[in-house]
Amino acid sequence: MVGGGPAGLTFARVLHRHGHPVTVLERDPGPEARPPGGTLDLQEGLGQRALDKAGLLPEFRALSRPEGQAMRILDPDGTVLRDWRPRPDDRANPEIDRGQLRDLLLDTLDVQWGRGVTHVVPGARDGVLVHFADGRQEALDLVIGADGAWSRVRPAVSSVAPHYTGVTYVETSLDDVDTRHPDLARLVGDGSMAVYGVNRALVAQRNSGGHVKVYAQFRAPLDWHADLDLTDAEAVRSSLLALFDGWAAPVLDLLRHGSAFVHRPLYVLPVSHTWTHVSGVTLLGDAAHLMPPLGAGANLAMLEGAELAESLATGPGDPDETVRAFEGQMWARAGRWAKMTTAGLERLVSPDPTAALALFDQVQPS
Asked: Residue 140's closest CA among 11, 281, 322, 28?
């Protein structure tokens, strides 16, 4: 398994649960090498189902935040347009921090940290030849690429590369928000808050421990920052405040008090991305079907990892045929979600801000 994200760790955990050894190759030098990212909503039929297969559903429920499902939508002038809150017993899509989920999945697994893969070559005499960044090579029977958007395994099965969507996110964050910024804590609420304008949006999402992630989202050329030093936080802040000029002061305070800024242009793979089956190599998650980050990617990746591991551990017959059958099922399901998330991004960062509100009304339970 190449990649220690949700897909790779779920695959390894399920296989381990069935008594089969598996090694996870991860390029990061350790689990704390970089920030794990924001919060995830794990859906009942996807991510939670995967955790059930991994035997971790009770532990997930103890850590997750059902109240994090709450969603508030504001007009740029600060008017509250929607304020949806889940019922106390609603566990359809509870939130969990990525770091908490990672630690939950990591327990008892064999992860080889600091083992960056540069490329893999199928069809070698002894299996699939894996080339590492340190110059070493190793032949393996089955290589599963769960190494994200810029997968080093993908070229072994597909020449397709991700393309820019035209939408960029700039991420910032607020710490200890309930104490340091109580007004903003109330503005965001227990879950997420979003404001939609013309071709731009501002979204804030509560994580555990008083931490809030903020995402400025806008349509722009990939080189929109050509005259901007992205390492200069104050320059980025000023640029974003100018982009959202005229929006309500409390909304803009989410940017004014942001502690750092990270540039995240959104890339995707084609909606119908597939490949001709290659013996000994396959892909999961973003490596296989990178799509807009609208709540589906990690859920699909985890379920794929769980399903493939379960099929390999319990299914009769040739493992290569098991992988081939899995790929067909994965492509069909991922294609449906890719269409939905691509259409969703078009409506959420749109010339018509009412499109986002209509989408919310369409998908949000009453």
From this structure: 281
In angstroms, rounded to a whole number, what is the distance separating the alpha carbons of residues 332 and 101?
Answer: 27
Buried b (16+ CB within 10 A) or exposed e, 234-245: eebbebbeebbe
How far from the centroid of its chain's Cα atoms is residue 361's Cα? 23
Closest by CA position to 157, among listed 335, 324, 303: 324
CA separation for the pair 100, 282 (Å, rounded): 27
Please give the distance of CA 3 from its chain centroid, rounded to a whole number.
Answer: 14
Dihedral of CA atoms 53, 59, 65, 69 in degrees, nearest 10, equals 10
Beta bridge partners of 127: 124
Q: Which of 310, 329, 328 is nearest to 319 (CA)?
A: 310
Tell how strand 163-174 and strand 143-145 pair up: unpaired
Query: What residue type is 318 in one-letter code?
Result: D
- pLDDT tens figures, 195-242: 999 999 999 999 999 999 999 999 999 999 999 999 999 999 999 999
Do residues 73 and 195 lie in contact, with contact meaning Cβ atoms separated by under 8 Å? Answer: yes
The secondary structure of residue 278, as a DSSP letter, is: B
Q: Give the residues across from 74 on adjacent strands.
A: 80, 195
Token pair 């709450």: residue: 70
Residue 341 near residue 271 (C-beta atoms within 8 A): no
Q: Work out the angle at residue 68's Cα, subtended by the Cα atoms of residues 264 and 190, and round it to the nearest 5 degrees.
A: 100
Q: What are the pLDDT digits (tens) for 323-366?
A: 999 999 999 999 999 999 999 999 999 999 999 999 999 887 55
Q: To 10 degrees, what angle do helices 233-243 and 249-256 make?
A: 160
- Which residue has 């084609």 as its token pair? 270
- Backbone angles phi and psi of 24, in degrees to 5: -100, 125
Alpha helices, H only, the chain: 6-17, 47-53, 57-63, 98-106, 177-180, 182-188, 233-243, 249-256, 286-289, 297-314, 319-348, 354-363
Residues near 349 by beta carbon (within 8 Å), at least 6 away in sequence: 167, 199, 200, 201, 217, 218, 219
